[in-house]
C-alpha cells in the first residue's frame, strides 16, 4: 500500500509540473511570434548576390533576436535570412537551413548553390540562407584591425619573430575589446544556435532540417544538443567534432595538411613545364622551403604588397583544402609568384592573389577576421601562457616544417576574456547523415568517426582517398550527391555506413 500511495503521489506531482511548464509564459515569445517581413534581397545596384537571389525568386528578411538570451528584454540584434520557396507542395518537408561553415561564413546566398545540386529535391523544401549574428548583413562586428588574418599566420623562424606575433595578438585582442567589448561575450556558437531556433519558430516550423559544411557541422551539433527533438533531416559535410574545436584553428591537422602539401607537390612536378616549380616532388618542396626562408630573411615584394615570414606559409596552406585540379592550379600560380619574389625578381600578382593579399594585409579583411576570431575566442579561449605556443611550434616544426609553426602559433584568444559559457558537451544521439573524406586536410576523418560513435543513429558516408574539404556539390562526386539527395528526398538513412570512391 505504501508503494502504491507513493506512485500515485509521484504521478500527481509530475502531471502538475508538466502542466505548469506547458502554461508558463514563453520568455522569448516576442521573438518566436514575430512577424517576418519578407522583401527583395538586392541592396543597391552593386549588390550582385542580392540581385542573383531576386532573380532566382528568393526573398529576404531580418529576424530580430536578443543579444543576451538570459536577458530577452534587453538589447536586440538582427539576423539576415533568405528564403527560396519550394514549389513541390505535394511533397513539402519544411525549412532546410543552410550554413557554409567558417566560423563566420556568410550563408545568405547558399540557396542559389544548393538548389541546382539538389535538383527536384529542392522543391520539397524552403531553402533558408542565414548570415549568423554579426556576420554579413546581420548586425555587424568589426574590430578595426589592419590585417584580415588572425589565424593563418606562422610563428616565424625564431623567437624574435615569434615575439612579433605575441605583440600583434595582444594588440588585436585589446583593440577588439575597446571597440566591441560590450558584445563580445555573446558572439558564440551557442548563441548562433539559439538564433537558429528563433528563426525556426518565426518561420512557423516545428522542426528544422539542416545542411552545413565544416564549422557549420559543429553549429548543427550544438543546436541539436540545446534543442533536442527539433531537428528533422540533418546533413553534416566535413565534420568538425567538438573534440577538435580549439582556439588554434588548424592544431591537430598538421599531418593531413603536410600530406596534402606533398600530394600537391607531386601534382605540380608533373606539370613542371607549365609552372616551373621543379620536375620532382622533392624539388617542388625545395621551392616552398626557399620561399619560406627568403621571407624570413626579408619580406617578399609582390606587386604593391610586402609578404613576410608570418604570411607566406598561410598563402600556400590556404589552398590545400582540395585535390581538384583547378584548386591545385591556384596553389601553383601562387607559389610561382612567391618563388619569383623569393628570387628578388619582379612578381606581379594575379587578380585572385592581389585580392587575397588585400584581404590579408590591409583593413579590407578586418570585419570577417574579427567575426571569426570573436566566435572562436568566445567559444574556447583559455590562457595557456605565451611560452606554451612557442614550445608547441618548435616541437611540431620538426615533423611539419610548413604547417606546424602556423597551426600552433599564438593568436588573440590567448588575450581574450574568458568565455561567458563553457563549451557544449554532446551527450545526445541524432539520426544524421555525416559526410567526410578520409584525407580531408581541414576537418580530419577522425572527427567524423568520433561523431558517428557519439551518434549511433547516424550514418557515415566516406569518400576514400580524397583530399577534399566539403564534398556535396563541391567535388563533382555523383555518388556523394546522389546519396545526400536520396536522404533529403526520403528522410531515410542508409541501413549501414556507406562509402564512395574519390
Automatic annotation (TrEMBL):
Domain AB hydrolase-1 intervals: 95-239
Gene3D superfamilies, alphabetized: alpha/beta hydrolase
Domain Peptidase S33 tripeptidyl aminopeptidase-like C-terminal: from-to ranges: 409-500
One GO molecular-function entry: hydrolase activity
Pfam families: Abhydrolase_1, Abhydrolase_4
Assigned keywords, A-Z: Hydrolase, Signal
InterPro entries: AB_hydrolase_1, AB_hydrolase_fold, Pept_S33_TAP-like_C, Serine_prot/Carboxylest_S33
Coiled-coil region(s): none
Family recorded in the similarity comment: Belongs to the peptidase S33 family.
Protein name (database record): TAP domain-containing protein
Amino acid at each position: 500500500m505504501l508503494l502504491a500511495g507513493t506512485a500515485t503521489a509521484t504521478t500527481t506531482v509530475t502531471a502538475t509540473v508538466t502542466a505548469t511548464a506547458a502554461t508558463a509564459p514563453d520568455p522569448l515569445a516576442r521573438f518566436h511570434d514575430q512577424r517576418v517581413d519578407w522583401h527583395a534581397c538586392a541592396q543597391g545596384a552593386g549588390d550582385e548576390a542580392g540581385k542573383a537571389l531576386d532573380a532566382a525568386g528568393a526573398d529576404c528578411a531580418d529576424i530580430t533576436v536578443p543579444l543576451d538570451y538570459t536577458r530577452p528584454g534587453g538589447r536586440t540584434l538582427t539576423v539576415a535570412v533568405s528564403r527560396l520557396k519550394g514549389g513541390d507542395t505535394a511533397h513539402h518537408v519544411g525549412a532546410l537551413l543552410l550554413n557554409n561553415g567558417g566560423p563566420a561564413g556568410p550563408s545568405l546566398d547558399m540557396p542559389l548553390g544548393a538548389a541546382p545540386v539538389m535538383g527536384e529535391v529542392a522543391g520539397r523544401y524552403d531553402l533558408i540562407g542565414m548570415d549568423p549574428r554579426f556576420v554579413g548583413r546581420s548586425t555587424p562586428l568589426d574590430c578595426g584591425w589592419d590585417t584580415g588574418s588572425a589565424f593563418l599566420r606562422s610563428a616565424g623562424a625564431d623567437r624574435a619573430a615569434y615575439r612579433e606575433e605575441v605583440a600583434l595578438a595582444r594588440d588585436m585582442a585589446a583593440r577588439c575589446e575597446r571597440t566591441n567589448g560590450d558584445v563580445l561575450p555573446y558572439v558564440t556558437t551557442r548563441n548562433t544556435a539559439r538564433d537558429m531556433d528563433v528563426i525556426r519558430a518565426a518561420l512557423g516550423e516545428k522542426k528544422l532540417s539542416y545542411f552545413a559544411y565544416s564549422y557549420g557541422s559543429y553549429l548543427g551539433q550544438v543546436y541539436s544538443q540545446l534543442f533536442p527533438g527539433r531537428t528533422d533531416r540533418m546533413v553534416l559535410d566535413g565534420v568538425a567534432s567538438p573534440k577538435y574545436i580549439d582556439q588554434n584553428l588548424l592544431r591537430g591537422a598538421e599531418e593531413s595538411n603536410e600530406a596534402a602539401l606533398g600530394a600537391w607537390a607531386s601534382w605540380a612536378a608533373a606539370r613542371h613545364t607549365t609552372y616551373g616549380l621543379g620536375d620532382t616532388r622533392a624539388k617542388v618542396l625545395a621551392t616552398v622551403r626557399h620561399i619560406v626562408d627568403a621571407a624570413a630573411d626579408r619580406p617578399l615584394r609582390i606587386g604593391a604588397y610586402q609578404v613576410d615570414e608570418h604570411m607566406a606559409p598561410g598563402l600556400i596552406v590556404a589552398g590545400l583544402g582540395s585535390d581538384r585540379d583547378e584548386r591545385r592550379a591556384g596553389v601553383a600560380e601562387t607559389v610561382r609568384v612567391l618563388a619569383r619574389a623569393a628570387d628578388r625578381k619582379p612578381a606581379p600578382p594575379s587578380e585572385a592573389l592581389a585580392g587575397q593579399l588585400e584581404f590579408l594585409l590591409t583593413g579590407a579583411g578586418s570585419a570577417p577576421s574579427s567575426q571569426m576570431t570573436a566566435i572562436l575566442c568566445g567559444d574556447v579561449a583559455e590562457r595557456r601562457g605565451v611560452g606554451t605556443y612557442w614550445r608547441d611550434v618548435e616541437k611540431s616544426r620538426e615533423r611539419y616544417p610548413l604547417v606546424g609553426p602556423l597551426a600552433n602559433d599564438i593568436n588573440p584568444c590567448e588575450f581574450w576574456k574568458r568565455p561567458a559559457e563553457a563549451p557544449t558537451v554532446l551527450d545526445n544521439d541524432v539520426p544524421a547523415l555525416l559526410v567526410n573524406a578520409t584525407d580531408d586536410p581541414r576537418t580530419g576523418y577522425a572527427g567524423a568517426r568520433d561523431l558517428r560513435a557519439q551518434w549511433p543513429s547516424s550514418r557515415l558516408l566516406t569518400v576514400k582517398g580524397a583530399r577534399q574539404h566539403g564534398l556535396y556539390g563541391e567535388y563533382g562526386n555523383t555518388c556523394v550527391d546522389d546519396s545526400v539527395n536520396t536522404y533529403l528526398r526520403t528522410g531515410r538513412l542508409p541501413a549501414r555506413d556507406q562509402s564512395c570512391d574519390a
